[in-house]
Amino acid sequence: MQKTIKMLALAVAVLFTFTGCSAFVINEERQAAQIVATVDNLSVTYGEIAPILEYIYYLNGIDATSKAKEMVAAREQITAEYLDQVIKYKAEEIMAKELGLFELTQADKDLLAKDAEEARAKKLTELTAQWKDKALLDKTITDPEAKAKAEFDLWVADNAMDDEAYISGRSASYWESKLEDHFTKDVTVSDEEVKAKYDQRLEEEKAKYTDTPLQFATDVEGGTKPIYTPEGFRYVKHVLIPIDSTVMNDLQERRYQAIAGATTAEIEAAQKERDEKLNAEREVELAKIRPQADIALGRVQAGEDFDKVVAELGQDPGVKQEPYLTNGYLMCAQTAFMPEFLKAALELAKPGDTTGLVATDAGYHIIKYESAVVAKTLTFDEMKDEINGTILSEKKTSAFSKAIDDYASKLESEGKIKKNLGVLKS
Asked: Looking at residue 29, what is its pLDDT?
């Protein structure tokens, strides 16, 4: 929660450009300096909170100037909730100062400098590898290391990654990490907690992936490491030689329009007639791209690296982005691909197999069975470290949040927190 406040604060500079006509127009220093709240010896000013509130209104679809009862109520609720967050952040700052954690020590600076050095080294290694790969395909690139270094220097400058800028940019939030460590250093997770979470997740995943297999693909592509992997999944890649996108969209729209009919047989007959007509139209478009498709197929059948053919001739932008660039598309029989593509992809017998030209409303595809997804259940020992880390993070977040809440409540009970919401009323 507190980190969200910081991120919003960083957006203020952008907001002034973004919101040319503002409900909270800060034209005068006096208005900007008006006190919205005080937390002990710290103040929250109009200029500090108003632009961010306007942005929150915008994100929630709330008119910042409307006098309608529901809009006024919504603004008042959001304002009160956000101000409470800011107050807690101020309380957090006071705690850090009281505990001597607010200012960076030399040890802190040394650690940050080490972080910056490691990040720079990693980035330079990545860029060097990328430029060497490019040089293999482009013989005009004679010095990939120099290209990598030039791009690296720009990255360092654009992202403030030299030691001084890195330390300066992180000093405003580093104290919060130290404060969190102070209050959560004794938080632990028991083996019983980890086992209970493992059993719970396993039961939930089995039920979820059995009832909705596509949720497995959604979870994996979202970064989840499932305990339970169901049967029937595989990764595929493809080279797409497309027909005109306008024609494709028109074919798809007409192909899936509802057909009215008195009986199921009549509807099926009408669908068959429509599909035959649309397929005939599609053949005209496919003929236009057949020469390109044959070239791509020839290169694949000659044993050329499939990824290279995808990169040079394929025109599906999705498969050229991660994680699809490395893994391919994760699919099963229920995946919402075009039926001809789905059928051909599932008929491939083993990893490495490729299809001939597969025609769909999108164009021609050459599909490769990239890898099999083995149905399995990860053991408790395989998952315990990850689950332990998840539970520990959750418990630390909860413990830290409670410490801040308790301290803010203490300040309030001592009369050290005062609010003046009237300053923000439009």
From this structure: 78
